[in-house]
Amino acid sequence: MKDPILVIMAAGMGSRYGGLKQIDPVDNAGDIIMDFSVFDAMKAGFKKFVFVIKREIEKDFKEVIGDRISQRAEVHYVFQELTKVPEGTVIPEGRIKPWGTGHAILCCKEVLDAPFAVINADDFYGRDAFQKLYDHLISIQEEEPMKIAMVGYVLENTLTDNGHVARGVCRVSEDGYLQKIDERTMIQKIDGQAHYSEDGGESFVPVANDAPVSMNMWGFPLAYLRALEEKFPVFLQTTVKENPLKSEFYLPIVVDELLSEKAATVKVLHSADKWFGVTYKEDKPAVMAGIQGLKDAGLYPQDLWKE
To answer: What is the domain count for the chain?
Structure first.
């Protein structure tokens, strides 16, 4: 079996940060969150990295992180572009929004030749998650139903003190397999207890602090790529007609369809690590303090890439 590949979805970074030059380091050495993901992934065994970016941020991306990684591992750049659609597809007039995370992975098909993991560029996942995902990918074979994995985090370890977040709350069977993901677009802590709202904050419903949640960290066999190829044209012919400017082809939606079709199983790999992310600018001091605490505990060198 070929070594697993790590796909890092970064196509939205330029728009979220007003250009990559504005990305703030999360430690005193000038590293960004993505540095820690790549560092952890390399320690787990990953040797090949695919960055999904917008073509217009290529130069900045390489300067901010890409060139640093390419000195240490095999690196590929893939551009997620609106025009990368099946022949004959008519792109709706006025459409600017990308086609979503499923389409981002489809754009990688020329460089994916082994089981692969997928993560967000701006989430800190922790070493344990990468090791478990790598070990899973090494173990799977091309068989049916396809064996997918998802890293589940404890909900309270993924919340911010500065507002609400969107999380996919997972229903997991007793033997550790994903049954369903309930997308909650507004979850926040109220008096130390997690709550979600479905009416814009008018009312809240408590949810267990220890509920497993998805942070968009997945492990897929190559068969999943073929499933995306089959389902993307259907999405373009149906969902896009209903919402031509904003509909997106999401990875979890395809996973849910495969579960319904009994074409896949999803093993939930639990991580006890604390997730870090700068959802709000007020989150940054806590993220920096958390990462420095991990360095002080010896989990990371003080200067990540000095060695």
So the answer is: 1
